[in-house]
Amino acid sequence: MTDREVDQQLVERVQRGDKHAFDLLVSKYQRKLGRLISRFVRDTAEAEDVTQDAFIKAYRALPGFRGESAFYTWLYRIGINTAKNYLLASKRRAPTSTSFDAEESESFEEASLLREVNTPENELMSKQVVGVVQASLQQLPEDLRSALTLREIEGLSYEEIASVMNCPIGTVRSRIFRAREAIAENLRPLLETSKGKRW
Amino acid sequence: MKQSISALMDGELFEDEAENLLGEVKDDATVRKNWAVYHLIGDALRQPDHIHCDLSAKVRERLREEPVVLVSRGRVAKRKIRTWAISAAASLAAVSAVAWMSLQISPEGAPKMAMQQNAARPVNMQTRPSSNDYLIAHQEFSPSAEMDGSASYIRTVSYGGDEAPVKNIPNEK
Amino acid sequence: MKLLLVLCGLMLASVGNVYAEERSASLDWLETVAFAGHQTDYSGVFVYQYDNRVETSKIIHVTEVNGEYEKLESLDGPQRQIVRHDGQVWDYSDHKAVQVESQQVSGKFPSLLPEQLSALSANYQAKLLGVERVAGYNAQVILFQPKDNLRYAHKIWVHTDSGLLLKAAVLGDKNKLVEQYAFTQLQIGGDIDRSWVKLPQNVSGSSAIAKEITPANSGWTVDMLPAGYKKNMEILRSMRGKHAPVTQMVFSDGWSAISIFIEPNDQDEDDVDGLSSRGAMNLYHKVVDKNLITVVGEVPPRTVMQVLESVRYNGK
């Protein structure tokens, strides 16, 4: 199965009523989509709201997704359109921003309730996560580190990594898993102790 | 188990294996957690400048209000299971690509092709659609138009139609 | 190719982080450019430089609730105006409006898709070159160096604030300038003339390119496209002055595209072979087995010629 097929399988599960499968899609694509949206919506907290909105829209539109394009391509369009509409709406709102009506203020409030305020704590947390991941990667034995790097950064398939590293595919699979697990081991305490378990 | 999750996210499980594994997601929150952590690691390596807190809990919260999506089974696309043909085709493509690359490296490659041509003659602009038509028809689907917007049309604006045809250039050798 | 990829992978693995970051930063810029070009209101004057010529044009771009409007006007030579509203393009010259193009795809925004970006990063090496000033604005300079000599290098200057493309150069062998667009004067946002924003009335004249477009599979194949070119589409379309529909195939490597047009050669003489060029665009005609084949693309002359030589009929 290719990556695209994995997504398709998850989509089909959602289409059969499995909401958990959608969770997996969200945890997979949230940062990629979030980064895309943050190019257009500069404010971090607003960008996170728009990212959430995009996922909700995607969920609603999912019954119509036929798999003609890759899931991410489809999600990407929804993300861009959500960002575009958000920008247009704030553009229209801008001149009269001091006097938005009740309906708007309500949705505003709702948005800020759901929004995680971008506290310095949150930023620190991101830095810590990245720091732990990078430090853990450096501590890994060479063969685990190369396997994971070739996979995550270069995007090579197991077969390609096997020919680069001159080892069986099964070994690649296990090296990548061990690398991930070793890093995850260092990451878990950080994620679990974090306030409100938001991470 | 965890190793299967790792392989699944790399697209390296067979469909039936994946189906079984995903079946457990419903009941087993640790599967979801590991999936989330492994993806966080990947993103932290690829885009260290943009790691934000996990939105999936919040999205899940908001989805609680949403009706469950249901698509009748007939409409869900069917796929083949365990297609070896795909990897076979891929390696074939790799071979021809290597052949192609070596052709490029050979210094005679390009000029030889050019030399097979007679000296270039002007295209008859009266009886054929003008070169501009081809340029516009091409531009319609070129990604470069996406980058330049209608600035890319300047290529066709700059010389209007037939009075100033596209410059014909003689073959260099 | 695979071998090459693998070798690259090996070399990159040690410094993977640095490269991956730079590459993804460059691609991020591209996404921003594709977005900003549609989303930003601006008006300015730019020069287009190619084949030792310089031409000046004026451009205005605004976004309205029902889409984008853009007006392009040549400032030297004969008067010429092009107005675009989303996918529709009108050409005003000789005091009449001719609709030259109408894309059937609505909501085209934006078409720089992830596949395109990944194709780009596979076929070009992206490099951030620092910040320079263009038309009074600070611009991030990014170079996209192709991995072979069958395509051009692209250098772009992106406004660091808005993401608008301020300057773009296409470079050939030995970094020789093939063509270049650059703003010389630019206003971003603010009070921009919108008086011209309306759809043209009484469109007269015949379409240069009719809208009859159907997907097709003609049975023609191309054996020797440069590595990384993927087929985007194959259609049957009508064209001005042509009775029979013309087959058009489009291939792209993420940045530039190559179109191949195939039509019955209904002319008696068959001496139409020839190469023509305008800036980065090269066009090559040749009659093969009673068919006129035309290859067009923003690629070097050698590429359109090689591609044409490898076009053959493979049967349905």
Plain-language structure description:
The complex is a heterotrimer of chains A (about 200), B (about 170) and C (about 325). With about 200 residues, chain A is mostly helical. Chain A is built from 9 helices and no strands. The two termini of chain A are about 30 Å apart. Chain B is an all-alpha fold and about 170 residues long. Chain B folds into 3 domains: about 1-50, Orthogonal Bundle (Arc Repressor Mutant, subunit A), CATH 1.10.10.880; about 55-120, no CATH class; about 125-165, no CATH class. Chain B has 9 helices and no strands. Chain B has helices spanning about 1-10, 15-25, 30-45, 55-65, 85-105, 110-115, 130-140, 145-150, 155. The longest helix of chain B has 22 residues, at about 85-105. Chain B is elongated. In chain B, about 35% of the residues are buried. With about 325 residues, chain C is α+β, with helices and mostly antiparallel strands. Chain C is globular, with a radius of gyration of 21 Å. In chain C, the strands form 3 sheets. An 11-stranded antiparallel sheet of chain C has the order 6-5-4-3-2-1-11-10-9-8-7. In chain C, strands 12-14-15-16-19-18-17 form a 7-stranded antiparallel sheet. Chain C has helices at about 1-40, 115-125, 300-310; strands at about 40-50, 55-65, 65-75, 80-85, 90-95, 95-100, 125-135, 135-145, 155-160, 165-170, 175-190, 215, 220, 230-235, 245-250, 255-265, 275-280, 280-290, 290-295, 310-315. Chain C is built from 3 helices and 20 strands. In chain C, strand 10 (about 165-170) and strand 11 form a beta hairpin. The longest helix of chain C has about 40 residues, at about 1-40. Chains in contact: A-B, A-C, B-C. The interface of A and C includes residues 40, 72, 80 and 81 of A.
Helix vs. strand class of chain A? mainly alpha
The first-to-last residue Cα distance of chain B is 64 Å
β-sheet strand percentage of chain A: under 5%
Structural class by helix and strand composition of chain B: mainly alpha
Detail the poorly predicted runs of chain A.
95-117
Q: Structurally, how many domains make up the residues of chain B?
A: 3
Count helical runs of chain B. 9
Instruction: Tell me the series of helices and strands of chain B, N- to C-terminal.
Output: HHHHHHHHH
Summarize this entry quickly.
The complex is a heterotrimer of chains A (199), B (173) and C (316). Chain A has helices at 3-15, 19-38, 44-61, 71-93, 102-114, 120-139, 142-152, 158-165, 169-193.
